[in-house]
Write a structure and sequence with these properties.
This is Small secreted protein. The protein has 203 residues and is mainly α. The protein contains seven helices and no strands. It is elongated, with a radius of gyration of 17 Å.
């Protein structure tokens, strides 16, 4: 049953960075801003990717509900913490030196914080599942996966805006904003883990 949850995660809800590198002519101030953010981004992207991998590895049909609950709850908490830290990183960097930079920054921070809150809510939902009844647990986990699907579809317009134009191009060049390698080996049958944020700066 956890497979639906893993599928929802790898469906690419999860916002932000992991940008594709591309050349750009953005100025040094924009590059400096991007470096300030991206230096703090990489550990959080790795945390998100590892949390997603742990959920995917808990998808075995033989896994006990209590073990799945523990793994999923810890993963959602980790993702929530990571998004909160990402919001703090963007907030702490100040407004990017581009047109409407302050508005773009504030909206992106708000979106990241809202995502953090949403994942904290999913963690609470998992904590509340009945692990003593396999059928009830499966139904409850399906509900969590459905909520995750809704979160995935809710859009990340502010982050996409942050990652567009000169700012997005500058961020894409920073190693810290590149897609991380997970420290936990990904399940070869998962089709590739991607709960780390995925927006393409070249689009």
């Amino acid at each position: 049953m956890n497979k639906k949850l893993a599928a929802a995660l790898s469906g690419g809800s999860v916002l932000l960075m992991a940008l594709s590198g591309c050349s750009d002519d953005s100025g040094s101030k924009v590059n400096d801003w991007a470096k300030k953010v991206c230096d703090q981004v990489q550990p959080q992207l790795t945390k998100i990717a590892n949390a997603n991998t742990s959920i995917q590895q808990a998808t075995s049909d033989s896994s006990k509900p209590a073990d799945v609950q523990k793994t999923d709850a810890a993963a959602f908490q980790s993702i929530s913490d990571a998004y909160k830290a990402l919001g703090a990183a963007v907030d702490g960097a100040g407004a990017p030196p581009v047109e409407d930079g302050e508005k773009t920054q504030k909206e992106a921070v708000s979106e990241l914080n809202a995502t953090s809150t949403a994942y904290a809510g999913l963690k609470s939902d998992v904590d509340d599942l009945d692990t003593k009844d396999q059928a009830k647990f499966a139904d409850g986990l399906k509900g969590v996966a459905d909520d995750l699907d809704k979160l995935s579809a809710s859009g990340d317009e502010a982050l996409q805006k942050l990652q567009s134009g000169d700012v997005g191009a500058a961020m894409a060049k920073q190693p810290g904003c590149q897609r991380p390698k997970t420290s936990v080996p990904a399940d070869s049958g998962s089709g590739g883990s991607s709960a780390e944020p995925s927006a393409d700066a070249s689009s």
